[in-house]
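Limitations
The structure tokens in this dataset are predictions for the assembled complex, not deposited experimental models. Users should treat interface geometry with appropriate caution, especially where small molecules or nucleic acid strands are included. An illustrative entry is reproduced here so readers can see what is and is not provided.
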Amino acid sequence: MLLMDSAYDLFIEKGFHKTTIAMISKHAGLGKGTFYLYFRDKEDVRDSIIVQKSAQILQAAMDDLEKKRQGLSFYERLIRMTDYIIDYLTENKELFKFISKSMGMVLISESDNDGVESKHLMDLEEVIRGLLKKSQVKLKDQKMFIYTIIELVNSTCYSPIVSGVPFTMDEYKPFLYHAIKLLTDDQVISE
Amino acid sequence: MLLMDSAYDLFIEKGFHKTTIAMISKHAGLGKGTFYLYFRDKEDVRDSIIVQKSAQILQAAMDDLEKKRQGLSFYERLIRMTDYIIDYLTENKELFKFISKSMGMVLISESDNDGVESKHLMDLEEVIRGLLKKSQVKLKDQKMFIYTIIELVNSTCYSPIVSGVPFTMDEYKPFLYHAIKLLTDDQVISE
Amino acid sequence: MLLMDSAYDLFIEKGFHKTTIAMISKHAGLGKGTFYLYFRDKEDVRDSIIVQKSAQILQAAMDDLEKKRQGLSFYERLIRMTDYIIDYLTENKELFKFISKSMGMVLISESDNDGVESKHLMDLEEVIRGLLKKSQVKLKDQKMFIYTIIELVNSTCYSPIVSGVPFTMDEYKPFLYHAIKLLTDDQVISE
Amino acid sequence: MLLMDSAYDLFIEKGFHKTTIAMISKHAGLGKGTFYLYFRDKEDVRDSIIVQKSAQILQAAMDDLEKKRQGLSFYERLIRMTDYIIDYLTENKELFKFISKSMGMVLISESDNDGVESKHLMDLEEVIRGLLKKSQVKLKDQKMFIYTIIELVNSTCYSPIVSGVPFTMDEYKPFLYHAIKLLTDDQVISE
DNA sequence: TATGAATGAGGCTTCATTCAT
DNA sequence: TATGAATGAAGCCTCATTCAT
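Predicted assembly:
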């Protein structure tokens, strides 16, 4: 979608707030009014972009996992997927910046348009649940475990990936994956 | 500070973006121009407020910890402090919403002694380091551990506290504290 | 005419200014471009509607008058017609609101006979002149009298009919008709 | 008031709809934003202008009446005032056009901002009531009489004054005043 | 210090109108 | 005839910021 690509470019380049609808339309080579034929406002494109990009990443991570059909343990699958996403976002720092900032805003936003955020979370949750099923594993507190892992990874990796502080992602990865192992081992009941 | 209090009220009530400088000044009972005598712009007040409020919370949490001088373990101290802060933010959801993005950031407290202005750099990391010292404990990867705990708590508690989803804070606390225990036990080397 | 009906509905419902050409076309089940095949702009449809509706009312009032062929006096005919129109507009307040500014204007009715298009110029003045002829009555200042009566009725009845202030139409009618009687009696010379 | 004068000039020159707020501000030698310091929107200035101008005319008419303190009858006073206003509006056709059109619009307007119109009417009504008191006269249906006279004069004089059709004001005046005499004589009970 | 009227850049949004199909 | 995506002029309105007092 022409307008979404245009908006994405500008959001990445100038940030959400400094991007105007006039700029988005012009950059897309379209008239200002055309924007309103497809989106209600700037928030609307942003949400669409987040949904789109998130789905893309997730899909790629899953495709990658499919390649190795061999009997991996739940932890191995989880880490492989996490690793894929982290590497992807490291290659696309600006995308991570954008998605993270926006997700933060959605959460904070006054109006109840967290439909985006929850949809996004739900997708990831669903995927991890799939991993559990494939590995024939059950967890003590599945919902809380998944929620905790997602938030943990997302929040701890942001700064290392985006700005390399207080450590680089390479420095931090072993610690993080070890932490995930501790939490996973504690949770697994049947295999 | 009159203007900071006024701004805080309005940021909490209407959100940052929907609050105008005119509103802040008026609500403070001051003229619009007066605002610019004390702050450069809206971001400026916001930052000052975050610094102030964060320092207050941290100070209160530490004061609370001082009450119990008895020999608590590092984990017990850490949880007690965490618990205090979580409870405080639960009572002040709007404050949490407001400062959330900036938690973990450097906190600066200002105190005027005898006309001398001294600045204390004091952040959560520093505080936790103090806890370690008091408990005479050493960790394998101190810096990473502290970073991980702060991000973990901040990111996982946000949604439960602010909107009670996907679980209430009361439901989630046992899981979270157990996770912290796992990570702590794995890290502690000498006591 | 599909578009005129659609426009009429919307003008009545939302008012002229708040109705857009897009709405008119859509409500008519037609494409936006089709509108321009039949009308130049919004004013154009509005004028056509006014002409159509006015002609309808007048025609209905005259048909009603035809029913009673008995020898009515000029005043009786005039009042009967006035009364019919007032009642009609009371039943169709929104229509009155809409065409009010244009009442007293020239009305054009269009009829197609054998492919021949003939235009009848037919306005209220003409109709009243017809009444005079039928009643075999002459007035001192015919043109001024007719003009005055039309403006008087139109302007005084607007508010009572549309909003019932400063009195309801039922309260006001006796006064108005009495006033018309005074003016008529003063004018009639030969009967 | 600078902005009101500016708006008045432009409303008269280009009409209400074709006048923009930017034009009003610029013509007044002020910034665009300044307009909003004093008026909510275009309707707001228009209403203020109508109130102002109407009050001015009425005041002038009353001042004129004061000159002749001699014992005039109610009809004589009423006509003198009417005559003064008609002459004034004839000298200021554009003003009459503007006030009349606007009043028409206010009446037709969807929202209930007929506060203007009614205030205007009430003022005139009040004045005529004063005339009655001064002349020590009572009428059978005072309220209806006043309402009818105001509407009659306003609606019948518009076209003659503004465009001289279907007759000039000079041609029409005798007829109109005679009609007013008929209605007045019929109403007066005690003198 | 304190004020608040004035500013005008800047963004948003609507909608009549065109035109290729 | 009929369409409807695309256009962009046109207007609206807000609000951070300045400045004379």
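Some entries come with short summary sentences. For this one: The mean pLDDT of chain D is 86.
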